[in-house]
Structures are given as structure tokens and as C-alpha cells.
Write a structure and sequence with these properties.
Largest sheet: 6 strands, antiparallel
Number of domains: 2
Number of strands: 9
Oligomer: single chain
Order of helices and strands: HEEEHHHHEEEEEE
CATH topology of the largest domain: Zincin-like
Number of helices: 5
Radius of gyration: 18 Å
Helix content: 25-40%
CATH architecture of the largest domain: 2-Layer Sandwich
């Protein structure tokens, strides 16, 4: 195991550490902890030099960190077993993700409310935690509390701003996401219902 990979241990639940250490020992991949990124919680890359790298956002939420780490380790395992021609979140990845998560689906690792939602998610894992509304909200319950509001909590026509200061008006729901109009450009964008924003009164 790359000594750098032991840096992930403080970020995960105590009861998961022995399982994760076993995974890290058998995985020849560098794991780097990064600052929070708005667009993703983690990623996996096969580098041109033949090595592999995983990045995971550092977070005080141990359940988010653990799920993200296993998600990305599953990408590495799928790449190792099946090569680079597979779909990023196809059956090969789903197979590896389920296999890696199953030993951790325990009530001493995850709180019961989160455990039941995670077990349901594993029946057909989506491309990210945020793609599954129920799981996204269950994980968010253990994030550091903020003054922000979720898009789905806002009334239609409400003005809000996002992390970079851009302003929008909430519109109608289209399937799973909300159509919002940027102000003042008028351009339309789709937002996940659990996206966190600042309401403008």
C-alpha cells in the first residue's frame, strides 16, 4: 500500500477502517485528498505512465467520504479487471461497487436510516450519490449544517444565487430536475432538486 493512502483513514467511520485498509493494501492506486469541489466528490484516472490515481474531497462527513472512496476504488477495480473500453458506470463498475460495499453494509458502520437507503441504492447504483435523490438527502443529513437552502424547498419564481454569485430564478420541474433561468442573461439551466443555494429575498 502506498503510504500516502493511509491519509484517508481519519476520514472514515472507525468500524470501516479494517475493511478499507484491506482494500488499500491490495490496490496499487494513489489516493489524494483534495479540497471540496463543487462539481464532484471524487474521481478516478488511469494516467499515461501506467499508474492510477483517485482523488476524494476531504469532508467532515465520514459517510460521504467512505461512499465516495468505495465508488472510486470500484472504478479502479473495474479498470484493472476489464480494461479502459468499458462504460464508466456500466455493469462492470456496478459489479465492483456492490462487491466492495457489501462488507460495509452494517449498522455499526452506517446509521440505520442511511443504511437502508444505501442498500436500496446498491440494487442499481447510479453514476454518483447525487444522482440518487434519496441517497443524496440521507448523506446530507450528516454534513456540516449551513444557512443554504435546497432547490426543491424553494417556491417557483424564487430568486437565488449559487456558490460563484450567479443568480437564477426557479422555474418548473422537468422530470427529476428544475429548470431555472439565469439573471440577467435569460439562459436556462437544470438544477438537481437537492442543490444547495442562497435564497435572495
Amino acid at each position: 500500500m502506498n503510504a500516502l493512502n493511509t491519509d484517508v483513514i481519519p476520514y472514515i467511520p472507525e468500524e470501516a477502517k479494517s475493511v478499507v485498509l484491506d482494500y488499500l493494501t491490495e490496490s496499487k492506486v494513489a489516493i489524494i485528498i483534495t479540497r471540496k469541489r463543487v462539481t464532484k466528490h471524487g474521481d478516478f484516472r488511469a494516467l499515461p505512465n501506467g499508474q492510477s490515481r483517485i482523488t476524494v474531497n476531504g469532508t467532515p462527513n465520514p459517510y460521504r467520504f467512505l461512499i465516495t472512496l468505495i465508488h472510486e476504488l470500484a472504478h479502479f477495480k473495474a479498470y484493472e479487471r476489464f480494461g479502459r473500453r468499458i462504460k464508466p458506470h456500466g455493469n462492470e463498475w456496478k459489479q465492483e461497487f456492490r462487491k466492495a460495499m457489501l462488507p460495509l453494509l452494517r449498522s455499526d458502520v452506517f446509521p440505520k436510516k442511511l443504511l437502508s437507503v444505501l442498500a436500496m441504492h446498491l440494487k442499481n447504483p447510479k453514476a454518483s450519490t447525487d444522482s440518487d435523490f434519496a441517497l443524496a438527502m440521507a448523506v446530507k443529513a450528516y454534513d456540516t449544517k449551513t444557512h443554504k437552502t435546497h432547490i426543491f424547498e424553494l417556491e417557483e419564481g424564487t430568486h437565488f444565487s449559487i456558490h460563484n454569485g450567479r443568480q437564477f430564478v426557479k422555474g418548473k420541474k422537468r422530470r427529476k430536475r428544475f429548470e431555472c433561468k439565469e439573471f440577467p442573461s435569460g439562459r436556462l439551466y437544470l438544477f438537481s432538486p437537492h442543490a444547495e443555494v442562497d435564497k435572495i429575498d
